[in-house]
Amino acid sequence: MRIGDITExxxxxxxxxxxxxxxNSGLIVGHPxxxxxxxxxxxxxxxxxxxxxxxxxxxxxxxxxxxxFHALKRFNSADYVQRCVERAIRSGIALxxxxxxxxxxxxxxxxxxxxxLGVERLQVLEPSAAAEGAGFGVVGDLPEAMPLAGFLRRxxxxxxxxxxxxxxxxxxxxxxxxxxxxxxxxxxxxAGRAGADLYVTADLRYNDFMKPGDALTVAxxxxxxxxxxxxxxxxxxxxxxxxxFAVRRSESSCNPVHYMQYV
Length: 263
Known about the structure:
Shape: globular
Structural class: alpha/beta
Order of helices and strands: HEEHEHEHHEEHEEHEEHHE
Strand order of the largest sheet: 5-6-8-9-10-7
Helix content: 25-40%
């Protein structure tokens, strides 16, 4: 199948026009007319993911994060970005990223994560003028109130998070929950205005945990943990439209962050 036919399916769901100005979504390595017998889905392009694509005969790797975010001035294997791009070119593997356009697409990343957590009646937290229903983050309600600690345990179980960093509990039960995959500190105020009891996101800095005060509790579950659902979302998009084509979920897509707990 033509790579362009595969990426066109993705872009119907998440048009490239929805990506942020700083982003680099789209076809990064390869040509739309190149052919492939399979696609491998991952969060990041890594050397392990490329090795898996080579083993499985996948000529296209689709990731959430772009392997090239800043301009490359040389290719001499000096870092993992250069090594991955070089290896992809040598192996004839195309690299495609679906990043902030997948985040802000209607029913995109935050919708998927919120659904996994049992949050219903979702609305966009920060709407975008780029398209009807587009925007970042979502807010909704649980079918019934849950203890905060119990809901955070659910978050860990359903995302694989090894730990959750959170601010001081404001309410010991939660019903209204806001969710934003990836780095979502900029939406803390929006979550408060939306009446959320809890805001689940990632990449919060020290002062971000002080910002909400007594308005709501914020929880940082980790960047990878919040965005691993990209693989599932992309798999559904492609499988529903390319029913006879080989779409594989990477077994090598791993969190680069490791945790050590002292007990």
